[in-house]
Amino acid sequence: MNTNMAVCIAVIAKENYPLYIRSVPTQNELKFHYTVHTSLDVVEEKISAVGKALGDQRELYLGLLYPTEDYKVYGYVTNSKVKFVIVVDSSNTSLRDNEIRSMFRKLHNSFTDVMCNPFHNPGDTIQSKAFDGIVSGMMVQTA
Amino acid sequence: MESLTLSDVEQKYYSDLFVYCDTDNTKKVASNGRVLDLFRAAQLPSEVVLQITELCGATRLGHFGRSQFYIALKLIAIAQSGLPLRVESLNSVKDLPLPRFVVGKNEAEARHAALYQDPDSQGLYPAPGTAVIPRPPGRGHQNKKGHPSSTSLPVHEVIQPLATTIESQPEPTSPVVSPHQSPPTSPHSWRKHKRQHSGGNAERQPVVAATGAVWTQFREPQTGPVAGDGMWPSHSPPLPGQESWVSFTADTPPSSTLPAMHPSSVQESTTIRTVASAATTNEIQRQSSTYDDPWKITDEQRQYYINQFKTIQPDLTGFIPGSAAKEFFTKSKLPILELSHIWELSDFDKDGALTLDEFCAAFHLVVARKNGYDLPEKLPESLMPKLIDLDDSAEVPEQTADVGYSASPVEVTPNKSPSMPSLNQAWPEMNQSNEDTAIVHPVPIRMTPSKIHMQEMELKRTGSDHNHPTSPLLAKPPELSEEAKLPASMKFVAANTVGDGYSSSDSFTSDQEPITRQRSQSGTSPEALKVVAPPPPPPRPHPSHSRSSSLDMNRTFAATSATGQPQPSTIAYPPAVPPRPLPTQTSVPLTGHRVEAESIPGGAAVLTTTSPQQIPQQPNFADFSQFQAFAASEQPSSLPEVDKHIEPGQGDKPSEGAGPLRTVKSDGQADERPSATVNSGAKGSSGPLAPPPKPVRRRLKSEDELRPEDEQHGPQKSNVIAAVLATQPSIPRSVGKDKKAIQASIRRNKETNTVLARLNSELQQQLKDLLEERISLEVQLEQLRPFSHL
Fold it and tell me: Looking at this predicted complex, what is its ipTM?
């Protein structure tokens, strides 16, 4: 069920540099990189808008950041200002909000596992195979 | 050169030596330097070496090709055995021991030689990935070990024609399973090989050399007791770790598998690691060769791991924090990436800390990696926290049994080949089986990662009790299996939830959440629906329109009044009209065909009872009765009479009251039909009951208007009542005239109908005209619009 979802998944660090980017159509990767980068603005905007008092109650799931004609971009931010961005194909209309949320949840859990690894230095790119596996499981099975 | 026939042992040995000498990695030519060193290590007189070189044809060629090298080696063996060097003797000499090379000048050679005296496994060396036993701590260390070992080794003793003693040996590292009923000695050498194999491939030759030295040490005891422990003591000086390792191995009873574990007393993690890795890798190899779970941890290994664990965390049931583990494993000099991967595999519950089992698994993986095994993608079953305990319980006797036992949920163990993938296959099966049972647990708990970790911590703590190697697990494996299964399942559940990508728990939580969301959504939907208030009920039709009778009255009056367009809505009736007709109409219809006289009084009574407003109707009633009387008389004059009657009754009324009264009177006078209808209606209860009330209503209305204005209707009322009462008896008299009244009313209604119909048609026509105009206008607009665009 969840094997055909995202077209691109990215993890961006607090300082807004990417920790992990993976796209399924390996061509056109640059386009997705650019999309993710532009979506960061929307993420920042949402963060600043919601986190007024203390940001404690801020919802981690940001929802649809912005739709383009080809795809939709969803955002999720952790409490440590690490952002997850998922780009899905617009033609994939069967995707429900709950499914996106579950994808983000899985990403977050995998990311937590990676962070728990003492051999992983925060700020390094994520090279965990387990994380790769999870991400691959969520990507569109085009090839 | 004559063809050289080599035995298998020799072949392997030679090929490995050649590889060793092939520093340039040409695979065809052995570097002269190395070769010469090797030859020198053979402890042959230099002239002999020269002779050999000439014989093998290297002198001619100027380099040592593979064949030349082999020939040279064989000649060396011949020379070492004391036979004269003859080309012919290359093939004639049978049972020639392998050439021996002393680890004198070149420890590598010595070791190599020693290694190669271990026939079978050596053949594996050429194998690319496994050829080099890793020097765990590093070359320096290795060399250090090598040199001392070389010096300390009674080389000659070591360098024995182990070929004779060594029989088929289990394949150390290659996945091909070779007969592993290796003699006790083989594992040692094997181990050495393992050590060489694991670790950096780049260190092949030196590693070979280094391990060769150690291996030679092994050799010593090999001749003796099974456990090559004796070797270790001899080797102890250079490495305290080795010494301790040796002692450890000496201590441990020679198990079926050679003590691969090293004593934990080694303080230096590097040395320990070296030894341990060697031991463990040998162990691993041995295991693999025995078709057992290559990832299984033997007792010695486990004991070693446990001891190591103690150095970091005295409490065996406690955890090793991630930082400490990181330091520890970083000493293994494995690349961080691999260590990271190992961590991911071994940290079963993903809590950032290692339990004893996890630590053992991690250590085992490190050892394996250093010995050249590729890291599995998933944690092998035998390394799983719970399973390892089960392994301990019955490890020694039957490894397969252990594996099967440990892998209780999976029956893959029997056919397990040394290859890792088989384990991986078992892993998913176990996952599935565990998931089924374990699904129950994490579902409600796992909501957030922190919570998961907490839960897993709990599980770990509960499970760690079982993890104690010497716990009663050994004593009660069956119980443990069940007990362990539960915590294992829990753990696996947690692990599955955590380790396996949170799939199951994710599904559950996600299921929960969507469900809750759906519920919430569903909850909101009805709310939303509720929010959508039902459309307001259509406004009640204007009472004035609802009553056909009123329309009739309107029509009639409108037509008669010639006010212009017959529009019922224009006729404004006093608001008091609606309520009044109700009681009257209701009363009248209710009464129905009852005695009209009764109906009237009933209506009057109703009027009186319903509201004070109805009281004034009594005078109307009275009027009505007057109308009836009038109708009975069929004389419009009755109206004036009535009016007159009214007037006197209302003479006191102000002019305002009289005004409407007069109008009413005038209307009544002007229009005979209403009166007739009124009369007829008054009398004819059936059918046109509505019309009759109209004039009555009108009267009533006027009366009402008059009433509020003038409260002196009391006496009038009484008069009206009296009149009504008086007229009551007159009602029966007008029955005869009712038919006519009814017919008149019918005619009147028909006329009003026709008038209305005409009006309707006219309005429709107007509507059509307007629509046509509109369409034409729109067309013009459309025509104009494009021009505007131009």
Answer: 0.80
